[in-house]
Amino acid sequence: MALAVARTVTQGGALVVEAGTGIGKTFAYLVPALLSGKPVLLSTATKALQDQLFGRDLPRVLRALALPRRMALLKGRSSYLCLHRLALARQLGCDPGLAERLGEIERWAQATHSGDLSELPQLDERSGIAALVTSTRENCLGTACAHAPACHVYRARREALGADVVVVNHHLLFADMAVRESGVAELLPRVHTVVIDEAHQLNEIGVLFLGRQLGNRSLQNFVRDLLAVTGRCALGLADWQGLAADLEAAIRCVSAVVRSLDGAGRWRWGAGAPEGLNAGRWSAAVQSLLPPLEALAAALVLAGEQTAELDRLSERCVDLLNLSQRFAQAQEGTSVRWLEASASQWRLLDSPHDIASALRSRLMGLQEGDAAAPPPRPPTAPMAWIFTSATLGDDERLSWFTEPCGLQDAHILRLPSPFDYGAQAALYVPADFPAPADASHSRCVGELVAPAAQVLGGRTLVLTTSLRALRAIGETLRECLPAASGIEVLVQGESPKRWLMDRFRKGTAPGSVGCVLVASSTFWEGFDVPGDRLQLVVIDKLPFPAPTDPLVQARCERVAAAGRSPFAHCAVPEAAVALKQGAGRLIRSDTDRGILVVCDPRLATMGYGKRLLRALPPMRRLHSAQEFETALAALTRISTTRSPCP
User: Fold this and answer.
1) Which has the least CB within 10 A, 85, 112, 172, 244?
2) Distances (CA, A) of 350 to 221, 323, 325, 551
3) Interior CA angle at 378 toward 374 and 384, to 5°?
């Protein structure tokens, strides 16, 4: 892999590498990229992985190679403390609990250099305090802000522009493609090599960022800021309270229609309205947003040029009005439009089917029909693009990844994991297990996991494909594993994600209670627990994409229109990649040992099961409950003979 990256860095072009777990892909792209001596931009999927790359992996390689390189970490606005918003939050007042957390942030603000909120591990990402003390593109005052000289966002951007190696994340990359304001647009012409790590998330992230969206949260935040700013510097210039009340009434009107869907989910938006909604009632609700936004836009224009805050409010109002007009009109073009709702929020979204066109033309500088060649640059400095992940597809051309990203002409390299999965891991698909659609399925998963976790003293991760299964399995485990069992059941959503990860990793420490973690969504990837602390991974069902998801529906329709099978070319590859990601949590080093359990009989009985099995690492098979119990006992003997993990 390092040799392939080195060739691409020298020659330019695009390289796509699927590097199995244990390859050392981070070092494989860092070493040749850094040795080239040319500027490098590194992008990864999440802020946590970004911190790991910048704080651990990159410094280790630079020290080992004795290379003097200036590093910089660049995140989006929501990651940095905004001094203006912090002062405003204190002026507005809040409940005692929130006030206490604001005090903690204020004390930290006196000492921090970066202003990066990740320095506050106790900050709960589920609380609303982060939104109070960070800025957005809409409410940032720019150079007119009194705190501009000390602004953490602009300091991070200045440091990035002067660095040899800059670490960003995919969200920032695509946010910049969409609005050209995050600093990456200035960086790209200066760099020679761009590495996209965890590239399997690129299309999903890009589709959302390159689309347009309007939600009740953005509207309500605008109302909150409107009342705060006009109350300080525009009293008497308009009936701000009345205008805000009119907009809030319109927001409630849309919310009432959304609530008639009775549940959370995504609903595709056809010609007239999202599925399940009356077209006339829906149209009237969305149209009701226009008059109050038009009135506010006019009032803010009249009050403008008095303060920078009023100017920014005016711009935000116009943006919200344009979005509301867009969604009030019939859909145009080939984008996908849908409504996304939860118990307290709704969003209207309009996105492209994939990122192929945008990635090639707006980021890589390629025109349609061009081969995967670099943008025009001096002959001595051809630009190189490296895309890599442990899972990018289940065929030789990695078409699951390359097609939606427009990279069919890129050089492809597939490297299997060096781990001895036959000796290190086993796969168990329980026979005679209830079908995935059976009402008893989740309870049966919990009843299978409970005794296994007791044998192992915890050390178990249960990955679910839905929040309903997450809750049901968690409840069953707590019934079957009372406190006296010595096993603690952790359930995603009940505590901050970072706390859950740390608690699970400490589960085998001396004097600590063992853990079973039941998780969904983000825990399927990026959760790294090497050693004996994780020995059993249980997947409740095959992770097929939801057939009702609007983006999935649209992609399936495009595949069908091309004369191909949507199930074979969309559903199965998607499930294969997700299944491989989940299974990848088990074996993280060449000394790890463990068992993967997939509680879905379709893996063993259906024809497509063979294709999914081929996507998994080559683990030995356990064919009966007795073999499973024997393998569990063997794991306990291994863990008791090893010294505790550091």
Assistant:
1) 112
2) 21, 10, 13, 10
3) 30
19 membership: H or E segment, kind and range: strand 13-19
Rg (CA), the chain: 26
**pLDDT by residue (tens digit) across 168-191?**
999 888 877 665 555 566 777 788
Question: Per this entry, what is the length of the chain?
Answer: 646
Give the CA count within 13 Å in the CB-facing half-sphere of 427.
24
Cα 506 to chain centroid distance, Å, stands at 25
CB under 8 Å to 454, separation ≥6 — which residues? 481, 485, 487
In whole angstroms, give the CA distance from residue 534 to residue 236.
63
What pLDDT, on the 0 to 100 scale, is given for residue 568? 94
**Residue found by looking up tokens 């070092």 in the block:** 27
- pLDDT tens by residue, 194-247: 999 999 999 999 998 888 999 999 999 999 989 988 888 877 788 999 999 999
CB 536 within 8 A of CB 594: yes
CA distance 544 to 466: 11
The bridge status of strand 487-491 relative to strand 165-169 is unpaired
DSSP state of 98: H
SS3 597: strand
List, in sequence order, the alpha helices (H) in 110-239. 129-132, 152-161, 170-179, 184-187, 202-210, 216-233
**427 has pLDDT over 80:** yes
At 560, which amino acid appears? Answer: A
Q: CB count, 10 Å around CB of 558?
A: 16
In degrees, to the nearest 5, what angle opens at C-alpha 600 toward C-alphas 605 and 534?
A: 130
Strand, helix or coil for residue 415: strand
Q: How far apart are CA 451 and CA 115, in angstroms?
A: 46
- Inter-CA distances, 173 with 210, 234, 358, Å: 11, 37, 12
Reference 121, options 497, 396, 445, 516; nearest CA is 497
Question: Region 302-329: what's the mean pLDDT?
Answer: 89
Question: Taking Cα atoms as reference points, which of 307, 415, 378, 238 lies closest to residue 88?
Answer: 307
Which residues make Cβ contacts (< 8 Å) with residue 130, sequence separation at least 6? 78, 117, 123
CB 580 within 8 Å of CB 510: no
The tokens describing 575, both together, are 């499930």
The CA-to-CA distance between both ends of the chain, in Å, stands at: 30
Condensed to tens digits (0 to 9), the pLDDT of residues 512-569 reads 678 999 999 889 988 888 888 999 999 999 999 998 899 999 999 999 999 999 999 9
Whole-angstrom distance, CA of residue 191 vs CA of residue 225: 38
Nearest to 196 by CA among 416, 404, 385: 385
- Rounded Cα distance, 469 and 477, in Å: 12
Structure tokens at 184: 């990456």
* Sign of the four-CA dihedral 239, 245, 246, 248: positive
Mean pLDDT rounded to a whole number for the chain: 88
